[in-house]
DNA sequence: CGTATTATTGAATACCATCAACAGACGTGG
DNA sequence: CCACGTCTGTTGATGGTATTCAATAATACG
């Protein structure tokens, strides 16, 4: 199954696509730019060929030159400790921008890898920074994106520090459901792009715990799950269990 | 004891202080600005009277108007869940900037409270944003600050997700030690501005666990602790235990 | 079609939280 | 200055939640 891009009306943008034709223009960096400004941003963006599942977009420690907006597919970002264990820091869907944790150093702070076939827009940071000088809206949008990421990471700290396994999974499901809806996909039925293992890693749980909670949620009639296919049967209950704040 | 400002040569800046006279100029927002640019930044900064321990600098949900650079003292930031429980998202020392998680909304995303007598520089965001248009260095520094915060939050996610209680405390001690050294204070002897309770909350541990780890570390000759006074006896061992990455 | 990876389920263990009691620090007011 | 109450910190005993270990089942992949 060709994943997300086929689930709704989004056109999988071809290599030549421009920002103004992209269905994600209302969510992505160009948000609130006027037409001429969008063209300027468009000029500095490089559109590469698709990444296959498992391909790295960049690796922790590599020279930092660009940030990347996801056009289709899904990306996970992760950090590795000295001990070699990895911590997934985020799953990223179309319109989201990855790589911003590397801005203040000359190397990438995280690694980014495709979870499925994925296309991205590469945005050279030097040129983006120049452009941000001229376009106040763009500068604000950049700051907003980073601010939002800080807020989401802090919500994640809350989750990892205070929530039970059930609450973590519920929070995750409600959160990703909302993000799919924002992008025009079904909020109640979707295919998770990540494995149970990656989900557990991200949520601070063992794989087995993730599995157990999924089966328990099914027994309780909260969800139906068949591998990575998930349907939310009782979103309200999940939302309550998640403790409200999910986005 | 009048806390941090008396521990080394830093002059506790009076109300009239300007950025160019501030001992923190090499760590704070003005970093890498030239003299004239610093004056421009200086013009938009409001310097208020000190906050007493327990005073709120701002509260989650209040209108977002400014970010704040800490001049002396210490601040904790925290989020509260719908259930009313709080998660501390950071402890902040002089030269650090708080409030940036609220940039992309019109309300503050976290609350900020003084842990001891604290002075701050208020920086109205609208004017900072305007100034960022003219001063490329300032814009970069702002982006750098946010980028760094994202990285630190992600390291925190790693800690909360993967580390044991011992590793968490060791990581915290090594981290704050380095931050004190950066600011010209002793790296091996300091007074923690937060309670055991707050430390546990931040690190995802129960108060009792924090207490036990502190006593165990003392028995092992790693530290000496007397309430909030802490000496690092064997920093190398602590560093190893922390798993390297601490900043 | 066979192998490797991923997912599920069960049993035993470990780590930390919780509960409870006490000790010490702090601050207030007598 | 000391008595008092409150808050914070320490220590011990117990229990729960999630991990770990182990085995099997299902899925993906060449």
Automatic annotation (TrEMBL), chains A, B:
Keyword list, A-Z: DNA-binding, Iron, Transcription, Transcription regulation
Pfam families per record: cNMP_binding, Crp
One term under GO cellular component: cytosol
Domain HTH crp-type: 163-236
Protein's UniProt keywords contain Transcription: yes
GO molecular function, one term: DNA binding
Signal peptide feature range: none
Top-level division of the source organism's lineage: Bacteria
Record CDD domains: CAP_ED, HTH_CRP
Domain Cyclic nucleotide-binding: 29-149
Name this protein carries in UniProt: CRP/FNR family transcriptional regulator, anaerobic regulatory protein
